[in-house]
Design goal:
The complex is a heterodimer.
Chain A lengths: L2 H12 L7 H27 L14 H25 L6 H26 L5 H7 L5 H21 L2 H11 L5 H9 L6 H34 L11 H27 L8 H32 L5 H8 L4 H20 L6 H28 L14 H24 L5 H8 L20
Helix pairs in contact in A: 2-15, 3-4, 3-9, 3-10, 3-14, 4-6, 4-10, 4-15, 6-9, 7-8, 9-10, 10-11, 10-14, 11-13, 13-14
Chain B lengths: L1 H24 L13 H4 L19 E8 L7 E8 L10 E9 L3 E10 L5 E6 L5 E9 L8 E9 L14 H46 L1
Antiparallel strand pairs in B: 1-2, 2-5, 3-4, 3-6, 6-7
Classes of the chains: A mainly alpha, B alpha+beta.
Chain lengths: ~450, ~220
C-alpha cells in the first residue's frame, strides 16, 4: 500500500470521530426513539406484569427467548468471523475485523438482556446468583454468556489499542485526548509492544472460538435437556452453533455493507470482501441444511409420541407456512442467490444476507413456540400471539444494535488501522496530519 | 442497488414476520378451539372443561356407591357400586367410571378406574389413595339404551395411602457430582486466560512504553 492510499485509509477510518453531521443526528434520533419505545414497553411490562405479553402458562417462552437466541447467535458469528480471519491470517481481513467485533459485542449486549426481560421481574435475576444450582442449564447460561461477554469486550479492546493511540495523537487539544491516552496504554508501536499485543490477541482469537461454541451449546442444552417434543435432540448444540454462525456472518455482511456505503469505504471494502464472506455463508448454510435434515429425519423416523405432533404442526399444520417460508426463502433462495453463477454483486450478497437473517429468526420461532405449545399435561395445544409489548421491545432492541455501532464509531476508528499496517506494511514515515473538526472545538 | 436489495429484504422480512404471527394465532391441530377472548383463555390457563355437576339426577338410574376397607388395609379400599334402573331393575353390563375429586389448577375429576356391572347391577374396584384424609369419590354411569346418565357420590375417609414414591439414585450420580467441579475448573481456566490476555498485554504495552520513555529521557 502506497503512502497516499495508506493516508486515505486512515482518513476514512477515522473521519467520523467527533463528527456529528445531519445524517448522523437523524439516524441517532430515529434509532434512539425506537430504543426508547422498547424501554417504555419494558417498563410498562415491569409495572403490570407478564400478563401484558402473549406469554402464557403453556407457551411461556416467546419472542424474548427467540430474540435472546437470535441476537446472541448473531454475536457469535461476528466474533467467529473475526477470530477465524485472524487465525488464518487472511490478508483481506483488515477493513472487516473491527466491524465484525463491534457487531458481536453490540448484538451480545442486546441478546443478554432478554433473559432478564423474560423473567418479568428483573430483580429475580439476583435469585439466579443467590440461589442458582449448578445442575441448572440456566446457571450454565449465565456463566457462559457473562464469560463470553467479557471475552468479546477484551477481543474488541486489544486490537483497538494501537488505533486509540492513532486517535490520541490526532486529537490535539481535545479533552478526549486524555481518555484515549489512558485507553491506549502509552502505545508507541515499539517491537516489544507489538509482541505483547500479538500474544494477547492470539490468545483471545483462539479462546473466543471455543467460548462462542460453548455459549451457543449451552443455549441449545437449555432446550435439549428438557423432555419436550422437538427439543430433546442430541444434535441441538451443533445445530445452534451452525445457526449462530450463519446468522452472524449474514449480519456482518449487512453491517459491513451499510457502513461501507454510509462511511464511504468503497475503496477499501470491495466486492471481493463480500464474495469471501458469501462463500463462508454458503458453506455454513449448506452445513445447516444438512444438520436440519438429519435432525428431522431421525426424529420423524422414530415417530415418538411427543415428537410427531410437533413435526406434524411444523410440516403440514399451522406452522407449515412459517417453516416452508424459512426453508425456501430463508435458506435455499439466499444460498442460491449467493452461489448463483454469473457476475457477483454486493447487492445480491446483501439481499441473501437479509433473507438469511429473517429466516434464522423464523427458525428460532419454529423451535421455541411449537415445542412449547405441545401439551405435556392433558390440556389443549397452547397458542401464542405476541402483544404490542413484545413487538415494541423486539423492534427497540433491534434498533439498539445499529445505534450502538453508530455511536461507537463516532469515537473509535471504523476500520482497524493497525491491522492494515500489519497486513500491508507501513509506508515510509511521514507526518500524518489528521485534524478532526471537533478537535478544534467543532463537533458540528 | 444496495438500497433496492435492502428494501426487498425488508419487505420479505415483514412478510415472514406476518406469517410467523399468523402461525401463532392459528390453532395447531384440526378441530382445536379458536382463541377465545376471555381473560381465562388469554392467561393461558388449561382449557379443560369445568367439572360436571356431581348431583345425582332426580329421575335417572340410581347409582349407589359405597366404600369399605380392603381385606388387607395396606391394599386400600373397595369402592362398590350398584346400578338400579328407574324401574327398580339391576342394570347389567353398565360401564361405571370412578373418579376422585382433586384440586389441581381448580377442582377436577381424576379418573381412578372403570368397571362393568354384573347381573346384579354390581361392580367394584380397589383404590389406594395417594393421600390420607377425606376424598370425594364419584361413580359415573354414562347411560345405556333408554337409561339416562347418572352418578353416585360418597366420601371416603382414608387412613391409609400409597407409600411415598422414592426416586432411585441415578446410576451416574457419583460421577455427576464431580462434573460441576470439573466445569468450574474449566471456567476458571478460561477466566484466567482472559485475564492473562488483557492484563498481560496491558502490562507488556505499558512496560515497553515506560522503557522507551526512559530511553528517550536518557538520550
Amino acid at each position: 500500500m502506497d503512502r497516499r492510499t495508506h493516508d486515505r485509509y486512515i482518513e476514512r477510518a477515522t473521519w467520523p470521530i467527533g463528527r456529528g453531521d445531519r445524517n448522523f443526528w437523524i439516524a441517532v434520533s430515529v434509532l434512539s426513539a425506537l430504543v426508547a419505545a422498547g424501554i417504555y414497553a419494558w417498563i410498562y411490562q415491569i409495572q403490570r406484569g407478564l400478563w401484558v405479553t402473549g406469554l402464557n402458562q403453556q407457551v411461556s417462552w416467546g419472542f424474548y427467548i427467540i430474540n435472546c437466541v437470535f441476537f446472541i447467535g448473531m454475536s457469535y458469528g461476528g466474533a467467529m468471523t473475526s477470530a477465524i480471519l485472524r487465525l488464518t491470517n487472511a490478508k483481506w481481513r483488515a477493513p472487516l475485523t473491527r466491524l465484525a467485533e463491534t457487531t458481536a459485542v453490540a448484538a451480545l449486549l442486546v441478546g443478554a438482556v432478554y433473559p432478564i426481560i423474560d423473567m418479568g421481574r428483573p430483580d429475580r435475576f439476583l435469585y439466579i446468583l443467590r440461589y442458582g444450582q449448578v445442575g441448572s442449564p440456566v446457571v450454565w447460561d449465565v456463566v457462559a454468556i457473562s464469560t463470553y461477554m467479557i471475552a468479546s469486550l477484551v477481543f474488541l479492546y486489544l486490537p483497538l489499542i494501537p488505533d486509540l493511540a492513532t486517535t490520541r495523537d490526532s486529537l490535539r487539544m481535545s479533552r478526549l485526548q486524555r481518555i484515549y491516552g489512558v485507553l491506549a496504554l502509552g502505545w508507541k508501536g515499539t517491537p516489544g509492544q507489538r509482541a505483547s499485543l500479538h500474544r494477547g490477541i492470539g490468545i483471545m482469537a483462539v479462546l473466543i472460538i471455543p467460548l462462542a461454541v460453548s455459549v451457543h451449546s449451552v443455549l441449545a442444552w437449555l432446550f435439549a435437556v428438557t423432555a419436550r417434543g422437538g427439543w430433546h435432540s442430541t444434535i441441538f448444540a451443533p445445530l445452534f452453533v451452525l445457526a449462530a454462525m450463519l446468522s452472524g456472518v449474514a449480519a456482518v455482511i449487512l453491517v459491513v455493507a451499510a457502513f461501507r456505503k454510509v462511511y464511504g469505504l468503497q475503496e477499501f471494502i470491495t466486492a471481493r470482501h463480500f464474495r469471501y464472506l458469501s462463500y463462508l455463508m454458503i458453506a455454513l448454510g449448506v452445513g445447516y441444511l444438512y444438520f436440519m435434515v438429519s435432525e428431522y429425519l431421525t426424529e420423524g423416523y422414530l415417530a415418538e409420541e411427543s415428537v410427531t405432533p410437533v413435526l406434524e404442526a411444523i410440516f403440514v399444520g399451522s406452522y407449515a407456512p412459517a417453516f416452508w417460508s424459512f426453508t425456501i426463502l430463508g435458506l435455499i433462495v439466499p444460498l442460491a442467490l449467493a452461489a448463483f453463477p454469473g457476475r457477483f454483486t454486493i447487492a445480491r450478497a446483501v439481499g441473501a444476507s437479509t433473507l438469511v437473517i429473517a429466516g434464522m429468526w423464523l427458525k428460532r420461532f419454529l423451535i421455541v413456540v411449537p415445542g412449547m405449545a405441545e401439551p405435556i399435561m392433558p390440556w389443549d395445544w397452547g397458542r401464542y400471539s405476541p402483544t404490542w409489548v413484545e413487538v415494541t421491545i423486539t423492534i427497540g432492541s433491534a434498533a439498539a444494535i445499529p445505534l450502538i455501532l453508530i455511536i461507537f464509531f463516532r469515537f473509535f476508528p471504523v476500520m482497524s488501522v493497525h491491522e492494515m499496517e500489519e497486513v500491508e506494511g507501513t509506508p515510509e514515515p511521514r507526518a500524518i496530519v489528521l485534524v478532526p473538526t471537533f478537535a478544534e472545538g467543532g463537533g458540528k | 442497488m444496495i438500497r433496492k436489495a435492502l428494501l426487498l429484504g425488508s419487505a420479505l422480512v415483514a412478510t415472514l414476520a406476518v406469517i410467523a404471527f399468523a402461525s401463532g394465532r392459528l390453532p395447531l391441530v384440526a378441530g382445536a378451539p379458536a382463541a377465545s377472548d376471555d381473560a381465562h383463555a388469554h392467561s393461558g390457563a388449561p382449557t379443560v372443561a369445568a367439572p360436571q355437576p356431581i348431583v345425582p339426577p332426580a329421575d335417572g338410574s340410581r347409582v349407589t356407591l359405597s366404600t369399605a376397607p380392603a381385606a388387607k388395609l395396606e391394599l386400600g379400599y373397595t369402592l362398590s357400586v350398584t346400578v338400579i334402573s328407574p324401574a327398580g331393575m339391576p342394570v347389567n353390563d353398565a360401564t361405571i367410571r370412578f373418579y376422585d375429586i382433586v384440586d389441581l389448577f381448580g377442582q377436577r375429576e381424576e379418573l381412578i378406574g372403570s368397571a362393568v356391572t354384573d347381573g346384579q347391577g354390581l361392580t367394584a374396584i380397589s383404590y389406594l389413595p395417594a393421600m390420607t384424609g377425606a376424598h370425594q369419590i364419584v361413580a359415573r354411569f354414562a347411560g345405556q339404551g333408554t337409561l339416562t346418565p347418572s352418578l353416585g357420590v360418597t366420601t371416603l375417609e382414608a387412613t391409609v395411602a400409597a407409600p411415598a414414591y422414592t426416586v432411585d439414585r441415578p446410576a451416574l450420580a457419583t460421577f455427576s457430582a464431580y462434573v460441576p467441579y470439573a466445569a468450574g475448573v474449566v471456567v476458571l481456566a478460561v477466566w484466567g486466560l482472559i485475564a492473562l490476555s488483557l492484563f498481560g498485554t496491558a502490562r507488556g504495552v505499558v512496560a515497553r512504553a515506560n522503557e522507551s520513555r526512559r530511553k528517550g529521557d536518557t538520550a
